[in-house]
Amino acid sequence: MSITSNMKINSDRLWDSIMEMAKIGPGVAGGNNRQTLTDEDAEGRALFKKWCDEAGCTMGVDAMGTMFARREGTDPDALPVYVGSHLDTQPTGGKYDGVLGVLGGLEIVRQLNDMNIKTKHPIVVTNFTNEEGTRFAPAMVASGVFAGIHTLDWAYSREDADGLKLGDELKRVGYCGDEEVGARKMHAFFELHIEQGPILENEGKDIGVVTHGQGLNWLQVTLTGRESHTGSTPMPMRINAGLGMARITELVNTIALSHAPNAVGAIGHCDVYPNSRNIIPGKTVFTIDFRHPQKEIIADMEKQLREGAQKIVDDIGLTMEIEQVGGFDPVEFDKDCVDAVRRAAERLGFSHRDLVSGAGHDACWINRVAPTAMVMCPCVDGLSHNEAEEISPEWASAGTNVLFHAVVETAEIVD
After folding, report:
1. How far is Cα 114 from Cα 267, in angstroms, rounded to an integer?
2. 85 sits in which H/E element
């Protein structure tokens, strides 16, 4: 028995599940605030586990808190096909980023159950811990430990803004599992995600077949000057860390534009000290995000940043420290898995185009240890990491149906 075009997921059930999950950790403007290892994240995990239990899956949890819901295959020796993403959100995040990939994976299991279809390979629906990297930097920590990029102890030592450690918070919410991280072997891994960009919507395409992922470099810069009164300190005598950050912000923009059209760069997170109306900032800490699909371009952007920033701080009289706090090399996804996604889109009659993902995803790390591919669906105006993030039920259905076909074809239907 082979997969055919009339095999499709239950679109209404998928959408209802997404909306039910969105009730947990509601944002202030229609989105979600379900940051990793908060009480809200724990509540979302509990709902996901409940649904997986009802679907007949067995749940495993590793020492990074990543959840693995397994639907058995007919061959006990066959490696599983993994599918998933993440349930944690940005502080002002949308309802779909990550969630669509996890619940789309769950919908595959549910639909196979409804159709009484068995697969040779087990299928494992996965919820990775701390993909967003907002509360505990960097992003994709759990998948990074799984792929051997980070050590478990290093990941446990990550601290949030209140000084709470990731390892301690894992224990607090009850998701510090005893399974060794990275011990699982995968036949393949597939991740469905909203595009987080405007290309698919602008071109009227239903599906993005992700062939590559951009490389990323996060640099944390600390500038130290001298706090002094804003009203009584003469302009030539100021050592203004805020001014240094402003000039470096412009530098980052200039560097990214110099590598157009594929390079991007911005300062996203910043802290100003003492953050008082009438005190010239004596210290600023901010993070620079550079991305490009070529490793050598990313390296050149960092080189330009270090040279240009040093001149800026020397002119003002500041001291500067630069630390890399996250990053990964550009990714080329597995050809066979990518072809499975492309075949799925064509079999179902969806318009599609190849894409390079501009964002980091758990699939980027898992690609190092298993054959991996990604499916993308459009999102309105390309807006993501924002409470106004929006997709249509039709886009969610199309993306999940392509995911369904690619996963089930790879897992091999058994007559």
Report:
1. 48
2. strand 81-85
Number of Cβ within 10 Å of residue 235's Cβ equals: 6
Does this model's pTM top 0.70? My answer is yes
Whether 44 and 106 have beta carbons less than 8 Å apart is answered as: no
Percent with pLDDT over 70 in the chain: 100
Q: Are 333 and 110 in contact (CB under 8 A)?
A: no
Residue 377 pLDDT? 98
Q: Give the C-alpha distances (Å, rounded to integers) separating 133 from 31, 58, 156.
A: 18, 28, 13
Q: How confident is the model at residue 321 (pLDDT cuts 50, 70, 90)?
A: very high
Going by pLDDT thresholds of 50, 70 and 90, the confidence category of residue 233 is very high
Task: Choose among 414, 335, 369: nearest CA to 187.
Answer: 369
| CA contacts within 13 A on the Cβ side of 164 | 13
Q: What is the pLDDT of residues 21-59, one digit of tens each?
A: 999 999 999 999 999 999 999 999 999 999 999 999 999
Joined together, the tokens standing for residue 214 give 């951009």
What distance in Å separates the CA atoms of residue 223 and residue 246, rounded to the nearest whole number? Answer: 11
Q: What is the pLDDT of residue 8?
A: 97
Alpha carbon dihedral 174, 178, 180, 182, in 10-degree steps, equals -30
Query: Looking up tokens 């920033």, which residue turns up?
Result: 309
Q: Annotate the chain with three-state secondary structure.
A: CCCCCCCCCCHHHHHHHHHHHHCCCECCCCCECCCCCCHHHHHHHHHHHHHHHHCCCEEEEECCCCEEEEECCCCCCCCCEEEEECCCCCCCECCCCCHHHHHHHHHHHHHHHHHCCEECCCEEEEECCCCCCCCCCCCCHHHHHHCCCCCHHHHHCCECCCCCEHHHHHHHCCCCCCECCCCCCCCEEEEEEECCCCHHHHHCCCEEEEEEECEEEEEEEEEECCCEECCCCCHHHCCCHHHHHHHHHHHHHHHHHHCCCCCEEEEEEEEEECCCCCEECCEEEEEEEEEECCHHHHHHHHHHHHHHHHHHHHHHCCEEEEEEEEEECCEECCHHHHHHHHHHHHHCCCCEEEEEECCCCHHHHHCCCCCEEEEEECCHHHCCCCCCCCCCHHHHHHHHHHHHHHHHHHHCEEC
CA 20 to chain centre: 21
- The whole-number average pLDDT for the span 199-228 is 96
